[in-house]
Design a protein that fits this description.
It is a single chain. The strands form 2 sheets. Strands 6-5-4-7-8 form a 5-stranded mixed β-sheet, sandwiched between helices. Strands 1-2-3 form a 3-stranded antiparallel β-sheet, with no helix packed on it. The protein is α/β, with parallel strands linked by helices. It is globular. Among the domains are: about 40 residues, no CATH class; about 130 residues, 2-Layer Sandwich (Nucleotidyltransferase, domain 5); about 50 residues, no CATH class. The chain has 12 helices and 8 strands.
Amino acid sequence: MRCPACRSTAVRHRSERTAQGYRRFRCGDCGKQFNERSAGLLNRAQYPSDVIALVVLWRLRYKLSLRDLAEMFLIRGLVFSYEAVRDWEAKLTPALAENLRRRRKGKVGRSWYVDETYIRVRGGWRYLYRAIDRAGALVDVMLSEHRDLAAAKAFFRSAKAVTGVTPDRVTTDGHDAYPRAIRTELGRHVRHRTSRYLNNRLEQDHRGIKGRCRPMLGLKSTGSAWRYCRGHDELRNFLRCRSRMRQHVSAATRRWQHMRRSLFGAMLPIPAREQLRQGAIRDPSPEPLATVFRRAAIAPIAAFVGREPRRCS
């Protein structure tokens, strides 16, 4: 443990804890006091980090509005407003998206499918550039106010920087900006195909983000729209259970993979978390998975049920 102020290692552990149960420390060099999450994004938050992370996960993953999440956690004894959900999403989503983008470095194929779709932002239409590879994995996503050559160049430049891969083949629609953007940013050796039918897999993949935007009745600013679209697509790709298109994955395997990849794995009780890390829980049958999943879902809130609800504005 290092001091967040002076980065010193001369840190002493204090016996008392914070109101949320986090350990407290004191730096021997600068004399400042801090706790386990003082250097994090959720410092001074009125609720534990795992509860806030679960709220943001459900916000990005499912078709839930800000008020829906506040009502769902109200039943569990956690009282906060929809504005608190908005603040937590604004704090955690950029860090989550950036972390997931770094994980995808060099892990995409060399056949890209690129297209743009429309997203309503503040009463107007914006262009969401998206790209996937042949297996359906996400390449990159970018929101733009214009659909022109500059936007296409910026998208290919971002996709190449994020993935660290130069594709061998790019499939797009017949927009005039794509051929020149591909030659400029990716190189003349890249094969460019233009066909509306070959891009059907990406057209179907647009349903994920389009289905999330309908319950919200559009987004209110370009910055929040870009943050939400990028966070949603990165999380959706990370929780994707198929490694190729049209692959059959059983329901038990999907539940198991979702539990391991989502934040629920970090919220398991210590014995179950050690078993998961050591690989002791391997049986994909529905009964043990349902037991572990139920424990994972209850663990973050079990300590708070029965307490006096506290408000977070």
